[in-house]
Amino acid sequence: MEMQSQGYTEDECYRKLRTAIVDGTLMPAQRLVEMDLARWLGASRATVRTVLARLEQEGLVERERYRGARVRHVSHEEAVEILEVRMALECIIARYAAERATDDEIDKIEELLGWMREKFEEGDLVSYSEGNARLHRTIAEMSRHSTARRLLDTLNSQNVRYQYRTILAPGRSHPSLLEHTAIVQAIAGRDADAAEQAMRKHLSHVCDTLRKMRSGP
Amino acid sequence: MEMQSQGYTEDECYRKLRTAIVDGTLMPAQRLVEMDLARWLGASRATVRTVLARLEQEGLVERERYRGARVRHVSHEEAVEILEVRMALECIIARYAAERATDDEIDKIEELLGWMREKFEEGDLVSYSEGNARLHRTIAEMSRHSTARRLLDTLNSQNVRYQYRTILAPGRSHPSLLEHTAIVQAIAGRDADAAEQAMRKHLSHVCDTLRKMRSGP
DNA sequence: TACGCAATATTGTATGACAAAATAGTATGC
DNA sequence: GCATACTATTTTGTCATACAATATTGCGTA
């Protein structure tokens, strides 16, 4: 009787596979063969199956009976849908962030915004884009609205590939910076209505940009 | 060698367990022991585990390592959060429903509204409440916005227990009927803005009602 | 009664089995 | 040469069983 080679836990496998999908290591429509994943993750087929089930529920994976799982492809139309829903949710969290932010948190996002402005002025749009993502994440935390936050998280993971593009669209970064400034100012001023409006305006512009990019992947 | 008693499929188990949670057969905080479920569902433990993983991802079940799964308890605060998000999503679908509805579909919701009015006048608030749920579901279908629809579905399943109460709140059914009439009229008139406004108004009232009921379960 | 320890129950994970279905590969007929 | 039918292989869906890790329970003792 030999040792049962204890592999990774379900949760570790979940995170690893999820990351691989979100960061593009695994491409959309790519087949996810259970035994291959099991070997790669160092886990059993059973564990892999439950992980795939979770990821399906989350919308990152598609499973067809007897035909296995594959990375879900997000169409351009769906990316727009997702962004519309995001807009609605981000309005909620912007409102709550304005109401519930602590002084420390406000310092933090103002600092972050300053950093983003620097990067923008340096022409480093990739870093700027990262700051953008971090800003939205931070505001979500500040809102303390766990339901909206959770949904936003899953939605964001579904269309990361579309995120960069909108910011890199020609002439889109400067308005983007102004819009983010307005959002931060509204939150700093604890003006819930203004925060929601600023966020809505920002995301409706992102939405327009995305809609115009019919040449999507 | 005897026949391997082929039980129910994962999906059947998923639906059965989900229904049991949503309709209250299984109470919140109730422990879900894997072997018990396996026997009840006529499936193996492995199948039950993947089903539980899916339901956890969906927010209907909570799992704690080495302590098993239990039906998730939705606090009053969370019910309000969920309703807020629902409001945002229902505004989206109301807008799209107004834009995309076919004549047949409009006939259908007008008919449904008539039925609800009857039930209301008969004082049959339980049937009225069912009609209410059906109306919202139908509008969601009409919107053809699969992302918003999917999220709404999961959210609704999480707080069904709170749904009835708001309608049965004293003096709440008559305004509810008027609000629903306004929504249907806006959609029938293909007025997206009006539909969104009517829906927002309706749900903000439901939200207020729920907020006032601090005596929730 | 409170505490500590042993007995029990339950979960987390792995393995191996096998039927069902899909897919790939091969032979056959034209 | 190509379409078609049949067979082999792969992969999935499900089950049973095993066992370590942990949680829970129950009991005996101070």
What do we call the CATH topology of the largest domain in chain A? Four Helix Bundle (Hemerythrin (Met), subunit A)
Fourth-tier CATH superfamily name of the largest domain in chain A: GntR ligand-binding domain-like
The number of helical segments of chain A is 10
| Helix-strand pattern of chain A | HEHHEEHHHHHHH
Main interface pair?
A: A-B, 27 and 27 residues
Ranges of chain A with pLDDT <50 over ≥5 residues? 1-5
| Oligomeric category | homodimer
Largest sheet, spatial ordering of strands of chain A: 1-3-2
Secondary-structure content class of chain A: mainly alpha
Helix amount of chain A: over 70%
- Major β-sheet profile of chain A: 3 strands, antiparallel
First-last Cα distance of chain A: 52 Å
CATH architecture of the largest domain in chain A: Up-down Bundle
Please report the first level of CATH classification, the CATH class of the largest domain in chain A. Mainly Alpha
Domain tally of chain A: 2
Mean residue pLDDT of chain A: 89
DSSP strand (E) fraction of chain A?
A: under 5%
What's the gyration radius of chain A in Å? 20 Å
Shape of chain A: elongated
